[in-house]
Amino acid sequence: xxxxxxxxxxxxxxxxxxxxxxxxxxxxxxxxxxxxxxxxxxxxxxxxxxxxxxxxxxxxxxxxxxxxxxxxxxxxxxxxxxxxxxxxxxxxxxxxxxxxxxxxxxxxxxxxxxxxxxxxxxxxxxxxxxxxxxxxxxxxxxxxxxxxxxxxxxxxxxxxxxxxxxxxxxxxxxxxxxxxxxxxxxxxxxxxxxxxxxxxxxxxxxxxxxxxxxxxxxxxxxxxxxxxxxxxxxxxxxxxxxxxxxxxxxxxxxxxxxxxxxxxxxxxxxxxxxxxxxxxxxxxxxxxxxxxxxxxxxxxxxxxxxx
Length: 307
Prior knowledge:
Blueprint: E1 2-5, E2 16-19, E3 29-39, H1 41-47, E4 57-62, E5 66-74, E6 86-90, E7 96-98, E8 104-108, E9 112-114, H2 121-125, H3 128-140, E10 148-152, H4 157-168, E11 172-176, H5 182-187, E12 191-193, H6 199-206, E13 211-216, H7 222-226, E14 230-238, H8 243-246, E15 251-252, H9 259-270, E16 278-283, H10 287-295, E17 302-306
Helix pairs in contact: 3-4
């Protein structure tokens, strides 16, 4: 099968289009014929070697955790799926080696759900990691109707899901983003503010009494900047800064595969409550360019690779 691989850490030029053996599913896994896969910041962070201390890597690596495709073969004990089922998933295993930037991937059933009927394969591939991250941070933070939520990086891959999920729960959402994305955020019912030194004053002008929840999808000091904006008893949650948990009594979230949560996300998408923003679609041979596009960190929505 065709696959993107790299045999050592490095920049995007280590990515190569190669031929690899077709994988075989285990007892509780299925073989998925990949239609599309998404690129996430964690993919190029692993490729650069930045996560070597916390992620076990076995070379050569096929990168990618997000997938949308069709079940090609089932394992011995996988009653959840049949050949031909359309699925999407966050195929994170206990080590990094056989990822989703390939024509086929073996996916444990715990990492998959049925693809939203209304979504294209490219849209479905854009959902799992970012959508699950947003869904799990929003729900673990206890976001509820009537609350005011501050979302950092509101127009990014995770943030664009987070603001919509919070709005669906009845929360008021203030989101930080570059000015180019403000009109788009307004279309989602979000009150946008600019990043930078004036952020605290801008949020205070919109929410003089402070915010109930801070969702940090940006890092780079967003947690510290948000502390004076958080109400007493408010919740600080970050996916990038452990000080949210260690110093401010909040949470640090590392997303987990979950069929239940993916299914809930799919239902929100089919209901039209959550819209999927695909920024760019690349062919498999152009995976290096897809990594580079994601690595600019100025992408609205998600970067997707079509297989």
